[in-house]
Amino acid sequence: MSLDPDRLAVERNRQAWNDLAATVAPLTRPASDEDFVRPLDAVDPDGWLRARLGASLHGRSVLCLAGGGGRQGPLCAAAGAEVTVVDLSDAMLARDRRVADARGQKLRLIQAPMHDLSALADASFDAVLQPVSTCYTPDVGAVYREVARVLRPGGVYVSQHKSPTSLQALPRAGAEGLTLATPYYHEGPLPAAPRCRTREPGTVEFLHRWEDLLGGMARAGLAIEDLREPRHDAEPGEHGRRSRYAAPYVRVLAVRRDR
Fold first, then answer.
1. Which of 108, 115, 149, 165 has the most CB atoms lying inside 10 A of its own CB?
2. How confident is the model at residue 259 (pLDDT cuts 50, 70, 90)?
3. Distance between CA atoms of residues 207 and 188, nearest Å
4. Nearest 5°: phi and psi at 50?
5. How far is it, in rounded angstroms, from Cα 75 to Cα 14?
């Protein structure tokens, strides 16, 4: 019996991230000892969590969504939070476990896709942190609805998303700039891309338009308070050159509205 397309994408992405973890690809590397010196700075570069939750995460309940790999979860725990990590990759969760054990931390680890938080209770988190990952699910609205459900009123959602333009564009910039090769209204999985800083080999990715990325948050009951486009255009090499034409990703601050 064949899997339906959504379940097939989940399984292919699980295996892809297991493979990436096995090669210790950059996005699968755990936090460094230097990161643990000031862990809250490492997970909250814009100060959004501190502005909303205070100078410490002690006593706060934090969900690291699609955030396995030994970075977000252990850093939040080092900052004093009670941490749950949800990730579909068993290898990435195993990396969280190894880092947490080495530092004497307690993490709750759950293997599940980002749109299925059925193991978590309503209104049970003060904050949800999600690194770049919504590109791996076909229905970003389903993710937002689950995030809104598990957040307490006034809870903070900090998420990062690949920009639509970056996903439309070719992996490399040409002599005349960056070519958009995929239509903005593309449906279904994106065409496979060669290994580069903006695409992960072996994964199944989806292009989400701004009306889905931002409008979807609002429709789910999440009020957007800020948006940043971290700059990479000064970096050397091809990634820096490409980033002069398209921001690779955006970081969004949202808060669950009272209902």
1. 115
2. low
3. 8
4. -65, -35
5. 23
